[in-house]
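User: Let's play a game. I give you a shape written as tokens, and you guess the letters that built it. Ready? Here's round one.
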């Protein structure tokens, strides 16, 4: 028999293990305080209400909820999403523009399956969500990146790049962005920049993929409406999920976009899993129908704001002045930048040896840059773990600065 390596397809050979997933394997020991995952806090799961909804589904809808469902998803849930997007996001859409997926990750896969041929280009920000870029690369796409600043993707550079690509007749298949509380940086694109981005995708006749897993998790200021809200030309595919606002275990998410694209995604989905978790869809719908979802979102917003503030406060006390970070207005992450001489991938084993973990920032850059950055998650740990973990990490950073010949300056004494 041939070696398996010779049997793998081209796309399989392009697949690489997620650096985040591999690092997480090293952080499973109970003594390690991990800021590496993007996990909701299990204390935030509305266990009692979910149990009530599970019992309700079993009592009233068991025959349908335990059966195969349609590929497009539970119609009542799709209709509820249509209503919710109008009410919450000012997006006018229709049930035929909605498909339920097994998490937003499946939506990214289906999108790639129906749009990307080998060698096609996807345009995105740098850094950006690694689950998206891994999927694009697995479909043999070329990824072009635009740097971000405190306002998200640099719109001036985006405009220049699109003009250049247009002249070369090499426009991307689509632009992929996480505009609200971006993973990994926590940065939010302001309304005027969103309008300019939409104008550009219209000007160059592009599809925009707007990934919005954290949009409702706003802790400060006013929540910014999604770009989809101004989509008068039906060229935005909006990805939403219940994983961050209810429970990820249901693996229930949705895509809202042009009906022709949604139909193609549905055909591709039939070859993947036939339909998403029917029982989970019923439970999620009942949670919405019984007005349990949005009160729960208010609860987790208060919880995560407290945890974000606890992490920021601990960083002020334990990190040296050479470390810089943003103050995210929502979402789950804080982005840290260290001096360019510090490589956070090289520093990671030392952090694990000191029983604390983060995600290496370089993993979020398709071009391999960002070696001096890291992502910290504040939602999953207890406040006590946040305090101790940031203290440990501050010690590791200071040790690394000494190793590089830099004299660290503490912000305050501990």
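Assistant: Ready! My guess for every position:
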């Amino acid at each position: 028999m041939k070696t398996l390596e010779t049997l793998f397809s081209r796309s399989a050979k392009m697949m690489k293990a997620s650096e985040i997933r591999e690092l997480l394997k090293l952080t499973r020991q109970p003594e390690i305080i991990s800021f590496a995952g993007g996990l909701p806090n299990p204390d935030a799961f509305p266990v009692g209400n979910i149990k009530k909804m599970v019992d309700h589904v079993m009592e009233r809808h068991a025959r349908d909820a335990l059966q195969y469902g349609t590929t497009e998803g539970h119609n009542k849930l799709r209709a509820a999403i249509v209503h919710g997007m109008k009410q919450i996001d000012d997006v006018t859409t229709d049930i035929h523009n909605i498909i339920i997926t097994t998490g937003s990750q499946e939506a990214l896969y289906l999108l790639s399956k129906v749009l990307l041929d080998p060698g096609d280009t996807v345009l995105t920000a740098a850094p950006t969500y690694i689950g998206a870029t891994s999927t694009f690369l697995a479909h043999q796409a070329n990824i072009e990146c635009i740097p971000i600043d405190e306002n998200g993707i640099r719109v001036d550079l985006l405009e220049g790049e699109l003009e250049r690509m247009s002249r070369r007749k090499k426009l991307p298949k689509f632009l992929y962005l996480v505009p609200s509380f971006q993973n990994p940086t926590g940065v939010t694109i302001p309304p005027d920049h969103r309008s300019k981005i939409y104008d550009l995708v219209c000007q160059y006749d592009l599809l925009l993929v707007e990934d919005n897993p954290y949009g409702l998790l706003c802790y400060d200021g006013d929540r910014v409406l999604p770009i989809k809200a101004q989509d008068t030309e039906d060229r935005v595919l909006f990805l939403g999920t219940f994983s961050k606002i209810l429970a990820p275990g249901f693996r229930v998410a949705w895509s809202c976009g042009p009906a022709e694209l949604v139909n193609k995604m549905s055909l591709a989905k039939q070859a993947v899993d036939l339909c998403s978790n029917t029982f989970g869809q019923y439970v999620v719908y009942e949670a919405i129908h019984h007005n349990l979802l949005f009160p729960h979102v208010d609860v987790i917003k208060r919880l995560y704001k407290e945890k974000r503030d606890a992490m920021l406060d601990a960083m002020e006390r334990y990190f040296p002045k050479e470390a810089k970070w943003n103050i995210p207005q929502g979402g789950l992450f804080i982005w840290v930048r260290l001096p360019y001489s510090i490589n956070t991938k090289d520093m990671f084993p030392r952090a694990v040896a000191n029983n604390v973990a983060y995600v290496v920032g370089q993993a979020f850059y398709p071009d391999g840059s960002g070696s001096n950055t890291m992502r910290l998650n504040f939602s999953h740990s207890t406040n006590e773990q946040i305090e101790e973990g940031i203290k440990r990490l501050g010690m590791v950073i200071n040790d690394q600065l000494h190793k590089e010949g830099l004299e660290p300056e503490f912000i305050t004494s501990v």
